[in-house]
């Protein structure tokens, strides 16, 4: 599906149990091929996970329709199996990790601010080429 609007950027946070960090990393190197295909089929792209100190996990992806992507994964038997296995890795999580992660508010985006700044600045003809 091609969209004429900017994609939705989604960032979320989870906390991995410190005693399970090595196993969590091993489960993602690599992720099941069929789960990778389901994520892509849902419409999520540029999906990354970043692991910080103390098990702080930050995830990021882009999508044209996050509600549709979420619904697709909710209905997926592959995703349900993956999430059921992954749930034990997280602290303070109630529900499937893909549905219960804490979303983060975007407060800055370089591309969006550059576009806005450029749109607000009137362009002036290049004086060296004026006749």
Automatic annotation (TrEMBL):
Matches recorded under Pfam families: rhaM
PANTHER family reported for this sequence: L-RHAMNOSE MUTAROTASE
GO terms (BP aspect): rhamnose catabolic process
UniProt keywords, alphabetically: Isomerase
EC number, as in UniProt: 5.1.3.-
GO molecular function: racemase and epimerase activity, acting on carbohydrates and derivatives
Protein name per its UniProtKB record: L-rhamnose mutarotase
Keyword field contains DNA-binding: no
Enzyme class per UniProt: isomerase
Highest taxon, organism lineage: Bacteria
InterPro entries in the record: Dimeric_a/b-barrel, Rham/fucose_mutarotase
SUPFAM superfamilies xref list: Dimeric alpha+beta barrel
